[in-house]
UniProtKB/TrEMBL annotation:
<dbReference type="GO" id="GO:0016846">
    <property type="term" value="F:carbon-sulfur lyase activity"/>
</dbReference>
<keyword id="KW-0479">Metal-binding</keyword>
<keyword id="KW-0862">Zinc</keyword>
<dbReference type="GO" id="GO:0046872">
    <property type="term" value="F:metal ion binding"/>
</dbReference>
<dbReference type="InterPro" id="IPR006913">
    <property type="entry name" value="CENP-V/GFA"/>
</dbReference>
<comment type="similarity">
    <text>Belongs to the Gfa family.</text>
</comment>
<dbReference type="Pfam" id="PF04828">
    <property type="entry name" value="GFA"/>
</dbReference>
<keyword id="KW-0456">Lyase</keyword>
<feature type="domain" description="CENP-V/GFA">
    <location>
        <begin position="31"/>
        <end position="163"/>
    </location>
</feature>
<protein>
    <recommendedName>
        <fullName>CENP-V/GFA domain-containing protein</fullName>
    </recommendedName>
</protein>
<dbReference type="InterPro" id="IPR011057">
    <property type="entry name" value="Mss4-like_sf"/>
</dbReference>
């Protein structure tokens, strides 16, 4: 009986940071992360390139939080180690759930938000990370606040605050 070729994995599953077909050899798990229910796990091999708090209205609504905390990594510095078939995607611009980048990456089971996947970068949410002794490393402290003009809470932490995008909007004074 001819059963035809096996069904090909969706394209995104063959690339960083998912890569079920060609997992990277010798990936150093510097940090590990998981969703709330544990169905999905991933790791990071190095410190984030940058870390931001985003106070935009989309982040507030989608995260159900006053602002979003995101750590920016190269996609090759991230590797999903469990549960990529349990992932769900959501593009906030067009509502697509088909892994159209940029896309939210969440666990399908518990709906924990895990990251914003851009075309080139992976903006992981440090809230998913399991830091040693529960202490946030200095590398995960935000370098700046973006969309501070739409904040719902003041964060007087001394980090630069931009009204909108960094480099594309004016810097706002710190208020208490
Ligand atoms: Zn989960
Ligand atoms: Zn935002």
């Amino acid at each position: 009986m001819h059963e035809g070729p096996p069904r090909a994995a969706p394209d995104w599953q063959t690339k960083s940071p998912y890569q079920i077909e060609n997992p990277q050899k010798g990936f150093d798990k510097k940090y590990t992360a998981a969703c709330h229910c544990g169905a999905v796990e991933f790791a990071a091999s190095e410190d984030p390139l940058d870390v931001k708090y985003c106070h935009c209205k989309v982040c507030q609504r989608v995260h159900g939080a006053p602002f979003q905390w995101a750590a920016i990594f190269r996609k090759t510095s991230i590797l999903f180690t469990k549960g990529i078939e349990q992932l769900e995607f959501y593009n906030t611009a067009n509502g697509s759930k088909d892994h159209q980048l940029p896309s939210k990456v969440l666990c399908k089971e518990c709906h924990s938000p895990l990251a914003d996947e851009g075309r080139n970068m992976f903006l992981a949410f440090p809230t998913a990370f399991r830091f040693e002794h529960g202490k946030v490393p200095a590398a995960f402290r935000p370098s700046c606040h973006i969309f501070y003009g739409s904040r719902v809470v003041d964060i007087p932490d001394g980090a630069p605050k931009f009204e909108g995008m960094k480099g594309d909007s004016k810097e706002l004074p710190e208020t208490r």
